[in-house]
Amino acid sequence: MKHKSLTRYSLLVFLAAASCTKLDEKALLYDQVTEDSFYKTDKQLAAAVGAAYSSIYGYNGAFFNLNEVTTDEVVVPTRGADWGDGGHWVRLKTHKTNSTDSQPANGWSLGFGGVTTCNKILAALAVSKSPTAATYVAELKCLRAIYYYWLLDLFGNVPITTDFSDTKPPATKSRAEVYAFIESELLANIEKLPKIGTGDGPYYGRVTYYVAEATLAKLYLNAQTYTGTPQYDKALAACDVIINSGKYTLMNNYADNFSRNNTSSTESIWAIPFDGVKAGGFNMNMETLHLQSQNTYQMNNQPWNGFASVQEFYQSYIDPAQNPGPQGTVVGLDPKGTPTTGTLDKRMLNNFLVGPQYQADGVTPLTDGGADVTDPNGPPITFTPYINELQPNAWRQAGARIGKWQFYKGMQTSLDNDLAIYRYADILLMKAELLARKSGNWNDPVTLALVNQIRTVHGGVAPFTSLTPSIFLAERGREMFAESYRRQDMIRFGVYNDAYRFHPADPDAHVNIFPVPEPQINANPNLKQNPGY
């Protein structure tokens, strides 16, 4: 268990505090915002601003599900009585999510819960007599803009609310209007933020100048999706600010970005400082591991045996065209995931759990007495990339498990590992893509150099001699697997609506954004449902 600066910053004290999730609830709290009752001391101010970050502790649960399960990377099979959940996981995979499903509701609540808390604290800071209150305003406005960026990406057309005293139900704004608001808020406040880079200092986990630049880079990278107009130059400029700062470098060992004690990652631009006891919410271990994996890791609770990688994506790490490399020779995989010839990418070894599973002694096989009689592996638990079906009876041990973040003995329901929202390798790949799009040349020398730098350092595989959009997207997927950007990337490359494993081709692209949750529309008549839902 780690002791992080955000604990000193008093954020973790507020993680259990309830945030407003309906926009019309905020008026119930406004009468508390007076200069007599709010934020007289620096300690109270710091604690209050920490509360504005509490929503991001739902990031993995809300955004991972919406941005990964909907893609060619991740699947949640229905394993008999497990993970049926009214069919909403299958609907998520097949892009048939509806306005009553829980996953869009979770994303909406996270985003607007964060917006409402920022608005509440900004209102209180406006009447605070503390001389340091103004120093937090820019940070909170940029954090609010980030919450809106996530809402823009997921829902497109959403309300904009900045006045905590305004009790009128807000109306839906167009995606272009929301985009313009986010950009203007970030640009108006970014220069007031500290230019602090990697390190477990007082701003670890908080919005800094480089966090705001990374948000602008993401906003501009996807501008054509959001507004119909590309913004390659603006996106490149934001990437270059981060790259040229000299504050970030690639980690020589890819796995160190995702280890239990990863606070010193030189790639981390912005990370959520999770803690298994004091700051929970990152429970990938519970979501992906088999029930019997409790015995492997000596866990207090039994995992849920759900999330797995799609077989074709897992196999994309094996390139039969490459010469044998230092990690071994394999050329493909049989249906059980047994390697056969080619070069093995080191990131594959980190990102997945496959093969026979054992007790904590590493010798005694794990067994599953409830294994399906049709499962050819029988009771001995073997994680195989092959998944026999999406529903209703996927084998309980089927699917390569998501092992990207280090699992460790004695782990709690929530992991200690910090979760990077913005990572330096992502910025380098963004620049590579932007240069190619701007020039129309995917073999631009700088593009190739940037991609190959990551590929050789993190993957330990031979560099590319040429690129195409599909090769680049596949390589970006290998590096950024399970970091909650795949849906955004597939939309940008025009393949999100294609047919892939467990997902038939979409009849139209209205599914590229999610439905506004029905309870929100019922509570606010000024909201408009997204087209097609």
Automatic annotation (TrEMBL):
Top-level taxon of the source organism: Bacteria
Gene3D superfamilies attached to this UniProt entry: 1.25.40.390
Primary location recorded for the protein, binned into one broad class: membrane
Pfam families xref list: SusD-like_3 (PF14322), SusD_RagB (PF07980)
Keyword Signal: yes
Gene Ontology CC terms, in alphabetical order: cell outer membrane
Domain SusD-like N-terminal: 87-221
Annotated compartments: Cell outer membrane
Coiled coil region boundaries: none
Domain RagB/SusD stretches: 266-533
UniProtKB keywords: Cell outer membrane, Membrane, Signal
Family: Belongs to the SusD family.
Name of the protein described by the UniProt record: RagB/SusD family nutrient uptake outer membrane protein
